[in-house]
Amino acid sequence: MLQAREHQVLEAYQAVKTLGDQLSIARTLLKTGKPLGSRRSSARNAKSVRRNRPAIDYDLSEMAVPDDMQKLVGKLLKRKDKHEALGWLTGAPKGIDRGISEMDNRESIAYVRHLYKLGVEELDVVKIDSSPDGELQSSDNLIAKLPDDPRKRKAIFAAEGKRTVEMGYDPYADSGQRYLWIWFD
What we know:
alpha+beta
């Protein structure tokens, strides 16, 4: 079954330059539902990798098919480390610094407030990583509950689409899904 699914994913990404890239992308998407480069060892390495990464032209918007994406979102929303994003960021105990991706706490709070201002109904942070001493907590994964209002949805998808393109990926399409997985590279 996995080989058949991998074959389907490979066919969808024929625009990728080499077979090795196609296999890596397909395997990563199948295993995690997340594009290549989703994990990083440190903020410094992530920045240097991002600067030096060759542009790969492939369309991730096909992964926004509600069935596949909503299954992944469902799994993420069931995690024990799920918290409402703004509350998690502002409610850190003294001595604990919390952030989204490479943003510091203040930038993270501003980003989350911006998403709420655009019309996101709920925003949860999931898959929280901690430094060995526990003083730094960060996540590269947010789950946004989307509004029904088409204008608000359009604004959210436009803002997130712009950010996703800046990371070097194609944006997800609005296919009527209830949740949007917001991830950082």
